[in-house]
Amino acid sequence: MVSKQIENFLRTLGKPLVLFVISLGKLAFFIVKSTYHALTAPFYIKNFIKQVLEIGFYSVPVVGLTTIFAGMVIALQTYSGFSKYGAESAVANVVLISVTRELAPVLSALMVAGRIGAAMAAEIGTMKVTEQLDALVTLSTNPFKYLFAPRLWAGLFVLPILVLFGDIIGVFGGYVVGVYKLGFNPANYINSTIEHLEAIGIISGLTKAAVFGFIIALMGCYNGYQSKGGAQGVGQATTNAVVSASILILIFNYIITEIFFAK
Amino acid sequence: MSDVKISIRNLEKSFGRKKVLDGVDLDIEKGQSLVVIGGSGTGKSVLIKCIQGLLTPDFGSIKIDGKETINTSEINQKNLHAKMGMLFQGGALFDSLSVWENVAFSLLENKKTPRNLAKVEAVRVLRQVGLAPDVADLYPSELSGGMQKRVGLARAIITNPEIIFFDEPTTGLDPIMADVINDLIIESAKGLGATTLTITHDMASVKKIADKVAMLYQGKIIWQGTVKEMEKTENPYVVQFINGCAQGPIKVEV
Questions:
Q1: Which of A1, B136, B137, B163 could form an SS bridge with B100, CB 3.0 to 4.6 Å?
Q2: pLDDT digits (tens, 9 = 90+) for A203-235
Q3: A132–B92: do the CB atoms touch at under 8 Å?
Q4: Which of B81, B107, B171, B197 to mutate to test the interface with A (most CBs of A within 10 A)?
């Protein structure tokens, strides 16, 4: 009797573990396959440009809004916190560092994950359940090359550009609050910002952006490709794409920071 | 006897513990129209997908023009697809592309035909399946079910394939439109001299387009013959199926 209970216990423990390992294997296989196809001809340049517009251009307002408010709130918080120690002059520096290193890449990526990751998973998932992916294959076109590779390249390429834009807008947000709300001298604020501008801060932020862009496109494509059934399956895929991309973004944010800044 | 285009031997495919195909043997002769009948969920679609390489069978052999297609290289697979056309059950038109871009997809993406020439060709094939040239610039979502089927057919035949697959071509259409599609299937297949494999459970369609009928039941081909033989057969499974009776040897899993 006891052995039976232990067996059942192990079974409940084992099943999710086995499923987890299976899905990890599927994901690894998908990454290898899509990377291989992203690097080998034929390349669908038109699809790539379309995705650049979709991921990049149409995300500009979202990223702009997110980063401007992030920069503004950091200026406000830093001032209220640091003025206790008479260190108000650090506001420009803190805004610069937090926006370029963390806020612009992470917040932009999370917003884009919600916007693009979901849309990608929904589009590819719908194509899967309506047999459009099969139709591509029967028309001698590899979906990995035609659909996934342009999206992965676009994610990798566009997110750094978006984040660079976000950096500028975010720092500008800090400037607006610093000068018009907290009464800093505009020239001093700008000087202080330029003085503290460091290549490593920008580069680490942009590296993060490229990785995050790849993660967003990868999760969108992978979850869409795995979706089964009808509308419900596609809905599930959409949710999974956003959740998994967001979690991976936060994990890789830490890992990349560690690589760049841990002494 | 004319030569065999597609030869399937002992084909097996399982999903989890469910054995969908359990040793299918089937020959399709060149230029022949074979119709596979069988109830829903008997593996008709799986059979077609295995032949096209969309699914990899667990066991068995599929030869096209005498060449084994299972586990063949990616390039061979691509060449095979260039010989095949498929009309999907739901049309499977790409909804991000216009009708003519759908029809001319192979020309644009694989043969790198200039867009203006590809469009001319697409409009010609659209006319062949009975669609007016102004449909070419619409999007699939703007079309009725019957029109989507026609566009799907046009996309399947534009490359003059040697083999065409039809996955339930008349499902979801009214009887008149179904008959129109049947006529189009016959016309386009005869026009190209193509070998066709159709799966359906629409008996009117079977009687109209089939040279030969095969019945799939529990993962095996349990009967095959011409339409005339089908009407005279005493095989209880076939009789039950073509007459659509709930009572008989075929047990419907509820």
A1: B136
A2: 999 999 999 999 999 999 999 999 988 888 999
A3: yes
A4: B81
The helix (H) or strand (E) run that includes residue B223 is strand B220-225
* A75-79, A145-149, B65-69, B155-159: least confidently modelled range: B65-69
Q: Min CA distance, B79 vs chain A (Å)?
A: 8
Structure tokens at B152: 């799907």
We find that the CATH architecture of domain B4-94+163-243 is 3-Layer(aba) Sandwich (3.40)
User: Looking at residue B248, what DSSP letter applies?
Assistant: S
Determine whether the interchain pair B106/A146 forms a contact, defined as Cβ–Cβ distance below 8 Å: no
Write out pLDDT tens, residues B37-77: 988 778 888 999 999 888 889 988 998 888 888 888 888 88
Q: Is there a domain that residue A248 lies in?
A: yes
The pLDDT tens digits of the residues spanning A59-82 come to: 999 999 999 999 999 999 999 988
- Positive or negative, the CA dihedral B80, B83, B85, B86 is negative
**Domain boundaries along the sequence of chain B:** 4-94+163-243
State the DSSP H helix or E strand holding residue B84, giving kind and residue range, or none if neither: strand B84-87
Contact A47, A221 (CB under 8 A): no
Closest Cβ opposite residue A141 in set B85, B89, B109: B109
Interface size between A and B, measured as CB pairs under 8 A: 48
pLDDT at B204: 87
Structural domain span for residue A132 = 51-261
Instruction: Assess if residue A20 is contained within a domain.
Output: no
Determine the Cα angle at B181 with ends B175 and B184, to 5°: 145
Residue from the list A44, A132, A137 with its beta carbon closest to the beta carbon of B94? A132
Give the model confidence (pLDDT) of A7-38 as tens digits. 888 888 888 888 889 989 999 999 999 999 99
The total number of structural domains that make up chain A = 1
Question: Is residue B19 within 8 angstroms of chain A, CB to CB?
Answer: no
Query: B252 pLDDT exceeds 70?
Result: no
By Cβ distance, the residue of A131, A141, A146 closest to B88 is A131
Interface test with B, best of A132, A140, A144, A234 (most B CBs within 10 A): A140
- Asked if the Cβ–Cβ distance from A135 to B78 is below 8 Å, we say no
- Residue B30 and residue B37: Cα distance in Å, rounded? 20
- B88/A135 CB distance under 8 A: yes
Examine the pLDDT at A161 and tell me if it is beyond 90.
yes
pLDDT for B251: 74
Q: What is the band of B1 on the pLDDT scale with cuts at 50, 70, 90?
A: very low
Please name every residue paired with B215 in a beta bridge, in sequence order, or none if there are none: B37, B223
CA distance B80 to chain A (A): 9
B54 touches A at CB < 8 Å = yes
- Tell me which of B54, B64, B155 to substitute to probe the interface with A (most A C-beta atoms closer than 10 Å): B54
Contacts of A140 in chain B (CB under 8 A): 78, 81-82, 106, 110
Query: pLDDT by residue (tens digit) across A91-130?
Result: 999 999 999 999 999 999 999 999 999 999 999 999 999 9
